[in-house]
Amino acid sequence: LINMRDREFLLIFTSVILTLIFSNLSLFLKSLSSTPFATPEIKQAARQVKIEGFRKSEQDFWRKIKDIDFDRIPQKKATANLEKTPLPPKKSTKKPTAVKPKLTKPYRIFLFIGDSVMFDLGIQLQYTMKETYKIADTKIDYKVSSGLNRIDYYDWYARTKEIINDYQPDVVIVLFGGNDTQDITDYQGKSRVILTKEWQKAYQERVEKYAKLLNYSSVRKVYWVGQSNSNRSSYIKAFPIMNDIYKNASKVSRKIEFISTWDTFAEGGQFTPVVADKSGKRGYVKVNDGVHFTSHGAKIIGDLIVDKMAADKILKLPQVPQKKP
């Protein structure tokens, strides 16, 4: 192996030879012809080259080479890794650009769809949203004695498509069920007795079809309101089953959300006719039919829905302009 000193000498010698070649080819040829490595052809070529003071220049050159003291040449310490260690990247002084939050288009147009129970509830929703959130663009579209059972009496599929196309709401609030507790005719034309497995399957098909209609519409958000507890045994038996169907159907889309109201008018699982609202005021919540709300009951359910929309940032309190000092 070549030690460090020999390697340094070899590098210097090679550098001198290359310099001599490129700076004075004739001088190099003359010098090479006098070495043992010169072939007859090189010696013949060198004889034809005439260089003044060649012998003296050659002797001076080799004398300088011999006079070099290689022990005094500073040598770099050998390292395990001969590659230069890369410098750490310079820290950028440029401040990172702040990412602008994505702006969400406000929800301004609201549509309330359902039977006559929705009329009572819709009136209260309109009042609260206008007074608290300054939302005035609302519409109630209801039909007495209608629902998703008797589509032959009132086709909510066709009507919903029509009203959404005409009104272009951002949010739809749906409430059905009060008139659906009766026998049903399924899509095969067969009559199914209320609350049997066949009835539940047929009613579920109706509800899922309506949920898909809302999902593929231009509406941005849907709240499907479940039925609340009642003082009538027939409703107490039917409404929990129907609520489960509404809740499961709402899972077809992330834009549809089910709002449970079953326990709002109940204590210990039992219906209670008098309930306090958010302010603590107590009052009767339903009329004698066990389905329709009183104005007090509609306010309680309305506040429940409004609070949910506020939590979802569908509704936002209007900004109050600050007074200049």
By DSSP (H or I, 4+ residues per run), the number of helices equals: 9
Question: Which residue ranges are poorly predicted, with pLDDT under 50 across at least 5 consecutive positions?
Answer: none
Mean pLDDT: 84
Distance between the termini: 88 Å
Give, in order, the helices and strands. Answer: HHHHEHEHEEEHEHEEEEEH
> Which structural class best describes the helix and strand composition?
alpha/beta
Give a verbal description of the structure.
The protein contains nine helices and eleven strands. The model has no long low-confidence stretch (mean pLDDT 84). By secondary structure, it is an alpha/beta fold. The strands form four sheets. Strands 2-1-3-6-7 form a five-stranded parallel sheet, with helices on both faces. α5 (116-133) crosses α9 and α6 (156-167) runs parallel beside α7.
What is the secondary structure topology, with strand pairs?
Layout: H1 4-23, H2 25-33, H3 40-47, H4 54-67, E1 110-114, H5 116-133, E2 138-142, H6 156-167, E3 171-175, E4 184-185, E5 191-192, H7 197-215, E6 221-225, H8 233-249, E7 256-259, E8 266-267, E9 270-271, E10 274-276, E11 282-284, H9 295-311
Parallel strand pairs: 1-2, 1-3, 3-6, 6-7
Antiparallel strand pairs: 4-5, 8-9, 10-11
Helix pairs in contact: 1-2, 2-3, 5-9, 6-7, 7-8
